[in-house]
Amino acid sequence: MKNTNIHEGIILIPDFSGFTEFVFNTKLYTGEYIVRQLLSTLIDVNDQYFEISEIEGDAILFYRYDSHPSYQNISIMLWKMRNAFNQKIKELEKELSISIDMSLKFIVHYGKFSQYSIGNFKKLYGKTIVEAHQMLKNGFAEQPSYALFSNSFLENTINRKPEFNVPEYHLSEVGMIHYFESVS
Q: Over the stretch 88-108, which tens digit does the pLDDT of each residue have?
C-alpha cells in the first residue's frame, strides 16, 4: 500500500509550564476562562502561518508542510507568541486580581508525517508526531520558559542565524534549547 499523503514539515507545540498546579488551584470557571484566553492569544499570533491539528488541555499541536523551514521565521514566531502570552497573563492577572503562575515552552521538530480524517477531525500520524510529544517530557530544561529545537529541525533549516541575543544550549542527543529568561 502506497500512501501519497506523507509530507515533510514542522511540528510546533506550545505548552504551558505550571498547568497542572494551576488547574488544581484555580476555580473551574476562572481557570477555563484563563486557559481559553491564553490559547486564543497563541492562535491569533500564529496568524495562520501554522495549521492547527489539535488543542489538548494546555497545548496546541501546530504543523506546517515545508521542505525548507526557516529558523529565523520560526524564532520570530516563538518570540511573538511568548511575548503575547506573557502580556495576556499580565492583563488577566489585573482583570481578575489573581496571580497566574504559568509560563510557555515550545517544541520545534521536523520530519515526515501524514494526515487522515475521522468525521470532522483531521489527525496527524507518524513517528515525528510521537517524537515531538516525547520531547515535551524532557529532563533537560533547567527553566520552565524555553524553546527546544530538535536536531531534525536544525539539520533541515535554512537561515540558521540567531535572531535574538540568547545563549544556545546544545544537547547532542536532542537538539538545542533557547531559554527566554537568563539561566542562573
A: 999 999 999 999 999 999 999
Position 145 confidence tier, pLDDT thresholds 50, 70, 90: confident
Answering whether pTM is above 0.70, one says yes
Distance CA 181, CA 110 (A): 25
CA dihedral 167, 81, 176, 113 (to 10 degrees): -170
d(CA 138, CA 153): 17
Q: Which residues contact 140 (CB under 8 A, 6 or more apart)?
A: 148, 171, 174, 177
Instruction: State the Cα angle at 35 between 29 and 39, rounded to 5°.
Output: 145
Q: What's the rounded Cα separation, in Å, for the pair 78 and 105?
A: 9
User: To 10 degrees, the CA torsion angle through 158, 75, 77, 125?
Assistant: 70
How many helical (H) and strand (E) elements, i.e. helices and strands, does the chain have? 5, 8
Dihedral (Cα; 69, 102, 82, 135), 10-degree rounding: -10
- CA 176, 50, 43, 80 dihedral sign is positive
